[in-house]
From TrEMBL:
Signal peptide: none annotated. The chain crosses the membrane at residues 15-35. This is HNH domain-containing protein. CDD domains: HNHc. It holds the Pfam family HNH. Residues 81-115 form the HNH domain. Coiled coil: none annotated. The keyword Transmembrane helix applies. Gene3D superfamilies: 1.10.30.50. It comes from Nocardioides nanhaiensis. Keywords: Membrane, Transmembrane, Transmembrane helix. The keyword Transferase does not apply.
Length: 163
């Protein structure tokens, strides 16, 4: 009797496999980040937390003062004015505070994004939308890596006065 129940359970599970496996694979593919664009696995957190002063103004200028969030999933652009400069790859997940990792968002898009690591389709949609309003000479790719110059600018030099 118990073996009949186990056999029936296995049979039902195998009957669902053609449906469940493709759905699981699709969910995995949609949630994956874009390779080579995010922070390195053991990258230390950037000491600069927020976009301030010139970098903040540059993020807003590139977005022409408008929210860079999508109107519907990845299509269209939010019509609201941008009020917050945010990290595409979150600072809490080792995303650096560099211009190539910045985006101008309205309050509601920034709150809904939270600290989620963006999947590949989000980055593709953002870069596609940016083609319409970014200046031609500005790179619109999202890259969450610091250059050597940016890394050197963040070095904290503790110098003690000579005694």
């Amino acid at each position: 009797m118990p073996s009949d129940l186990a056999d029936e359970l296995i049979r039902q599970t195998l009957a669902l496999a053609p449906i469940v496996v493709p759905i699981a694979v699709l969910m995995l593919v949609l949630a994956m980040p874009m390779p080579g664009r995010g922070p390195r696995p053991l990258q230390r957190r950037d000491p600069w937390r927020g976009f301030k002063y010139a970098p903040r103004r540059a993020v807003f200028a590139r977005a022409q003062g408008r929210c860079e969030g999508a109107r519907f999933i990845v299509w269209g652009r939010c019509p609201s004015p941008a009020t917050e400069a945010d990290h595409v790859y979150p600072w809490s997940r080792s995303g650096p505070t560099v211009l190539s990792n910045g985006q101008a968002l309205c309050r509601s898009h920034n709150r809904s994004k939270s600290n989620l690591r963006p999947p590949w389709w989000y980055l593709r949609g953002l870069e596609r939308r940016r083609a319409a309003y970014f200046p031609a000479d500005v790179d619109r790719r999202v890259v969450a890596r610091m250059s050597a110059e940016e890394r050197a600018a963040r070095q904290v030099r503790s110098r003690r006065p000579a005694a």
